[in-house]
Amino acid sequence: MTTPLVIVPPEGGQSFWQPVPANGFVRCILASKDFGGETPFAMGTQTVAAGCFVREHVHPDNEEIIFVLEGSGQALINGTETHPMEKGACFFFGRGQTHRFQAAEDGPLTFMWLMMPGGLETFFSRIGREKFPGDTTPSPFPRPEDVLKIEAETVFASLPGKA
Question: Looking at the domain assignment, is residue 146 inside a domain?
């Protein structure tokens, strides 16, 4: 079997506005399930609005790579370690490592994510609102009421005391 060649143009893939507390948006660029890639993965970018954050979470069955493209912020890892998130920084999260990302107050934080195996793209599509080129940023909107169910059906495990 020949592995396919896939080229995604700028602005290609699907984009989704994200609810609070991250706000901002996600661009889902590639997912091996969409083209028959041999190694299961999904990758894209996420822009977290200034002063906003990605909630503390854990992926029990997935490994994740985060590469900071623009902006700055802080990563909280395993509930105790803080590390700066600045352009060029790269993080590898093995299965079961909790993490939270906070954008600095002075501007958005944009990073590339790579999830192995995939599934994060499904989560983003289910909690977000589709974003189209030229859209204006929407007012902050809440997460779906069934977000915990969506998390459990995709790539997340619940954290005690976190909702």
Answer: no
pTM: 0.95
Averaged pLDDT, 13-21? 98
User: How many domains does the structure of the chain reveal?
Assistant: 1
Among residues 60, 50, 41, 24, the alpha carbon closest in space to that of 135 is found at: 24
Distance CA 57, CA 76 (A): 10
Structure letter (DSSP) for residue 122: H
Question: Among residues 159, 68, 70, 66, which one has the least CA distance to residue 120?
Answer: 66
Specify the CATH number for the domain of residue 28: 2.60.120.10
pLDDT tens, position by position, 48-83:
999 999 999 999 999 999 999 999 999 999 999 999
* pLDDT of amino acid 162: 66
Decide if 71 is inside a domain: yes
Cα 132 to Cα 130: distance, rounded to the nearest angstrom: 7
Domain of 82? 14-133
